[in-house]
Amino acid sequence: MNGYDMKTSDVSSEQYDFFAFLSRMRYISRWGLMRNTVPENIQEHSLDVAVIAHALVMIRNTYFNGDLDPNRAALYGIFHDASEIFTGDMPTPVKHFNPNFKRSFHQLEERARRKLLAMLPPELAREYEPLFFFESEEEYVRIVKAADKIAALTKCIEEEKSGNLEFRRAGAEHLEYLTASRLPEVRYFVEKFLPGYRLSLDELKLG
């Protein structure tokens, strides 16, 4: 007995493709309009966002009297771009081309998330749905958006370190946005942790 006492007759023979589709996040490239020294996919980016979102909540709770759940923030970060399995990574200038297109694209993203959830058994879909639709959780939305910007900035820094100036303007714009953030945990991260991304391995402090 393994503690998972489910009778064979209770297990549906139907198969579900949810996780197989999620695994394909690694094939969706980011920064499609820009020359990349090191290609980045949305699976890699989502892990970065999850780690940083978790860190931002930890910083808030530790230094700024916050009471959010860092694990919840990390989960939102993991799934925040899952719809791009179907839509691809739309470059920001295209996504914001005009209000009508932006609105239509958001509707497309919602349909893509619903399509993914439909690839789960109904009972599991209900459990996963809050991870895909957390727009009403305003504090977490702000955290994940900031984490997304920080992750994008670290990518820009990485490219500049490789001598690729294609990302210089994007990096400057992300840094300006983050420096002006109203979230103290974001400014803390930028001040205390971001400089390390600009260092070589030999320059990083190993303890």
The 3D shape can be described as: globular
Terminal CA distance reads: 46 Å
Number of domains: 1
Tell me the major beta sheet: none
Low-confidence regions: none
* Fold-level CATH name: Hypothetical protein af1432
Structural class: mainly alpha
- Let me know the CATH homologous superfamily: Hypothetical protein af1432
Q: Strand share of the residues?
A: under 5%
Q: What Rg is obtained from the alpha carbons, in whole angstroms?
A: 19 Å
Order of helices and strands: HHHHHHHHHH
Mean pLDDT score: 90
User: CATH architecture, please?
Assistant: Orthogonal Bundle
Please give the share of residues in helix: 55-70%
Q: What would CATH call the class?
A: Mainly Alpha
Number of strands: 0
Count of helical regions: 10
Detail the topology: elements first, then pairings.
Elements lengths: L17 H5 L19 H22 L6 H10 L4 H4 L4 H4 L3 H19 L4 H11 L5 H24 L6 H12 L4 H9 L15
Helix pairs in contact: 2-3, 2-8, 2-10, 3-8, 8-9
Keywords:
mainly alpha, globular, 207 residues, Hypothetical protein af1432
How would you characterize this protein structure?
This protein is an all-alpha fold and 207 residues long. It has a single domain, classed as Hypothetical protein af1432 (Orthogonal Bundle). The protein has 10 helices and no strands.
Quick rundown:
The protein is mainly α and 207 residues long.
